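At this stage, I wrote out one protein's amino acid sequence and its backbone structure tokens, and that material follows here:
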Amino acid sequence: MHLYWKRAACRAAVVLACVMALVPLGACASSAAEVASQAAATPDPATLKLQRVVMLMRHSVRPPTKSYVIPEGYAGDPWPEWKVPAGYLTPHGFKGAVLLGRWQREALSRRGLLSADGCPQDDVVVIWADTDQRTRKTGVGFAKGLAPGCGIQVGHTDGDRDDPLFDPFENRAVAYDPAVSKAAILAHVGGDDLQDLSHVSVRLDKAFTRLDAILGCCSLPLCKASGLPEGCTMGELHYVWEKVDPYEEVDIVGPLSVGGTAAESILLEYANGMPMKDVGWGRASVEDLVLLSKIHAVEFNVLERVPYNAYRGATPILQRVLQVFDGKRPARLTVLVGHDNNVANVGGTLELHWHVPGYARDDQAINGTVGFELLTDGSGAKFVRAFYFAQGLRQLRELQPLDADHPPYFHYMPQPLCALPGKPTLCSLTGFENAVKSRIAVAGPGPGPGAAE
């Protein structure tokens, strides 16, 4: 659209809003002029220079994190055997991370952030991972693809000590009250009791019906234990609050949590390149995977995108983003390798959304990455864009090479908390900082388990 018509549209929209609000048109004229001035002054993102990038990456392909996958009675057949221990990164997953690192090097070199070849200078690239083997090895794979032979080290806390950057709850890095969290979850789903989550299960009826057929759910003892007759379905089962340690984030047991884990486990089988006869015991199709992914996405929407939990879970990571963007550190690219809940927390806090091929909307893709770019214009003014990228599920399964002609999914996301006029994906740095600071949590252990906030 020509600039003249953009300005005319802005003025018309403001005048209409003023008329509907019974505001004098004289006052409206100054508002229209201000909106038009702001729109004209907003830069085109394509003209901005990339200065810094911070990425939060979910780890690559792993088997289920527990040997029993889901509780007894939900699945009629034994789960398939994996060739690595529970929760460990697979060789296939490592190769997938290498491919993403290689693509990022090409993409960032085209924009001048990194050189096209050779090893980056010391401290230009920083990769920090959670302590789990799968996160550390994902970081190693990404580094290998990004700068092969350069020996970029993946930092992490010593031993098996939990990292408060990725788990601020148990590490008491933020104030957290489990009772308030439970109330927030119920409010988020519009209920007063945990069983009100059944309304959410009903909306996923098609997905649960398909999952029941794939699993062979549910066994007679499981139905009886829930006070239900023989032939009950997963979506009918009751919800209970899971018993967790003090200061640990609250969780639920029921259709969403069990179904989400089962769905994700079947999706991981596909992503790891298993023959289709071994994906969901040969009873799951590629079309089923997108449907099942909805259960996992909704589970995380209920637990990890709910504002009370999201703001607290995302606090250390978003603080790190602001620290990188303050210009006092040499790193041009910072990669943080964590988990799906970390990505969901950040997405929920800043109201960011994505939709990767092969997954449901907002589901945290394997290797999926939410990131932030710091950009400048010719005058030195600073701006921020948020993006999400990941291999499509088929790209990861087949380990398809990635390049400019065959890219992964990459999406600049609207930033509703701070977007500039006419540029939904672009914020000023100040606006971004204010949005983050308005939502991150107070540091410290808080009032303790069961206390009122």
